[in-house]
Structure formats: structure tokens, C-alpha cells
Q: What sequence folds into this?
């Protein structure tokens, strides 16, 4: 089953931007934000501010991957320095 890429507008630090992600990543990002009692915009702003390279969509995908790796048995979450992106330890 193919998940289409969905482009959505989001406000980050007072600036409107568009982010393209598959439905599964949007759903996961909303779930993570809710669990951390953050707005989606606040979580994305934190991911954006901690990325060192790549585009925002890629940084979000890596963040979601890192988050769920932490729940996998024997899973290992790479640090931001190891993969060059946002850390999964966003408060």
C-alpha cells in the first residue's frame, strides 16, 4: 500500500512554511506532539532548530524514526551527530 505525500502548511517561529510528508509521518508526528503535550508547530520548530543539514521534511522523518526506534526491542537511537539531523530527545 502506497502512502501519498501530503503537503501541509505549518507556522514555525512565526513563519509559515510548507512541509511534504507521507500520511504515516504526519500521523506519527501528531501522536508524538500529543504525548509530549506540545503543539505540532512547537514540535516541528524544535526539530527545525536542531537540524544541521538536509531539508525539514527529511529531518522530521528522521526524528520520527529515531522516536520509534527507542521503543523497539534492542533498538538503538543514533545521536544527532551520528546521522547529522535532529535528535529524538526533544523536550
A:
Amino acid at each position: 500500500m502506497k502512502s501519498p505525500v501530503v503537503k501541509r502548511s505549518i507556522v514555525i517561529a512565526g513563519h509559515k512554511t510548507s512541509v511534504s510528508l507521507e500520511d504515516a509521518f504526519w500521523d506519527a508526528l501528531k501522536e508524538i506532539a500529543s504525548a509530549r503535550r506540545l503543539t505540532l508547530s512547537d514540535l516541528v520548530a524544535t526539530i527545525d532548530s536542531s537540524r544541521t543539514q538536509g531539508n525539514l521534511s527529511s529531518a522530521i522523518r528522521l526524528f520520527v524514526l529515531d522516536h520509534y526506534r527507542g521503543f523497539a526491542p534492542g533498538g538503538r537511537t543514533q545521536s544527532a551527530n551520528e546521522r547529522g539531523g535532529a535528535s529524538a530527545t526533544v523536550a
Observations:
- The chain has one domain: 5-83.
- The helical segments are 23-35, 40-50, 56-69, 80-83.
